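Before a computer can learn anything about folding, someone has to put a protein's shape into writing. The outcome of that step, for a single protein, is printed below:
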Amino acid sequence: MYERISSNVRKSWALIFVFVLLVSAIGWFFGLYTDTGFWPLGIAVAIAIAMSWGSYFASDRIALSMSRAQPADPHEYLQLHNIVEGLSIAAGIPKPRVFVVQDDAPNAFATGRNPEHAAVAVTTGLLAKMKRDELEGVIAHELSHVQNRDTLVMTLAVTLVGVVVLLADFFLRAMWWGGGSNRDDRGGGLGAPIALLGIGLMILAPFFAQMLKFAISRQREFLADADAINFTRYPPGLINALQKLRDDQTVVRTASKATAHLWIESPIARSANEGPKGRRSNRSGAWLNRMFDTHPPLDDRIEALQTLGFGAAQPTAPAPQPPA
């Protein structure tokens, strides 16, 4: 466990380093091409640092606000609070703040920069459609993200990807509308190669940044599923919960692409040709589509748990009783 936590902290710093390099390269090429010196580089790095700092301290409030999550009343949602508290003890972390999202779609997410500043939110649809052992499986999955600092890694990834995309778009437009005209005159014909390199970087950097973000997000889901089983000691609970999430394809009305990576399953609809309006599609689809998914297909996650020896959702042998 501690090695996983340390690994995620190291990955967070590595992630920041990679994205700062991308941002710096974009700013440097823009300054070189437009003969504006190093100020575009300085501005790009300053924006990246400011947004990373802000997302680190305010990510939980932003995610909860965007999802319209409200604090879960301890009396009205007594069972939910009991489950979160019991599983927090099993995970060895402080009990996170508990929130409820008024939405019929079954889903849940965790947010926060560390276990001391974490929050778990569930939809009313999840509470209505899941049995206790299934709800425990979902909550355990989210607490695994908190315990292993996955929420920190993904918050930084999403923020920095946004910085790369915004800066690349801004500098491309600036290069298109002006600047760089003196480069050909002064650089002995170097303007065109520099422009091609810069434009190529600004086009490809957001793409590779997005690919990195999606790859990190998908891997985290498999690991959190396995950890959840270790917390609950009852594999059928999570497996049955994932099957219910797969079969109930209602989208979360308050979700957005900005927060989709936080939820236990992607809460937003795919393109119109992949399913009815307002519905999700959990089909694996083409490999290119899967590259842009924030979550692996639910069938793959269920199969992974069964392959690990956790058994089927409906075991033939008598299953142990779920925790009280």
Q: What stands out?
A: Residues 161 and 209 are 6 Å apart (CA to CA). The radius of gyration is 22 Å. DSSP finds eleven helices and four strands in the chain.
